[in-house]
User: Fold this.
Amino acid sequence: MKILGIIPARGKSKSIPFKNTKKFCGKPLIAWSILSAQKSKKLDRVIVSTDNLKIAQVARRYGAETPYLQPREISGGAIGMEQVLKYSYEWFIRNENYRADVLVLLLPTSPIRQTFHIDEMVDLFLKTKADSVVAVNETPANHTPYWTLVKSQKGRVTLFDGSSLKNILTRRQDFPQKCYARNDLGYILKPANLYENKPNLYGDKVELYIVPKAVDYEADINTKNDWHNAEIKVNRLLVKTKNNKKLGKK
Assistant:
């Protein structure tokens, strides 16, 4: 199967200027996603879809393809990811007669993603014949709908479903089901999802890739504080990897 890895990277960033090319633990932020994708045995090709020449230059330096610069109509901050992926998919069909069977979306704001995450997501996608696979972690109890409170315009406080706080479950063990949060480590999808009446990443049959030890790898960098915390995680992971090699562990 032709599995295309796509790393979208806009030139403009409001919270952190020039975020994608800014040095993160010694390398440009976008380089981390490129390198983890290149090591994957599952991806047929790895491209960076960008509207910025400097990002394209950095991406090529680290081995990614940059076959085009995004046109203005799909480059704004309000543009959905579906349009970016659809443009990439169709560009390759028009210009190279290359029709991807599977699209792998890798956001550059998740630099701690490891190659094994990508490979395991693709394996899950192929094994389950899903329309999509979404990387998630289990939601902490206080962040689930069962313990989430809302306040109406009239000032009445209830549980998220509108019921009285008197009915709140006192133990997380009594929750009727587990809840999960997307962590943006990756999305695997069929191109057909992008052509539904409402283009989307998910389709009808969605599988969850529940990330083990997600706290070690999760990082959605949108603020300076996010950046700082992610660097701490990377440095901790690098030290752990180095120590494991000394001990002969994988």
In short: The mean pLDDT is 93.
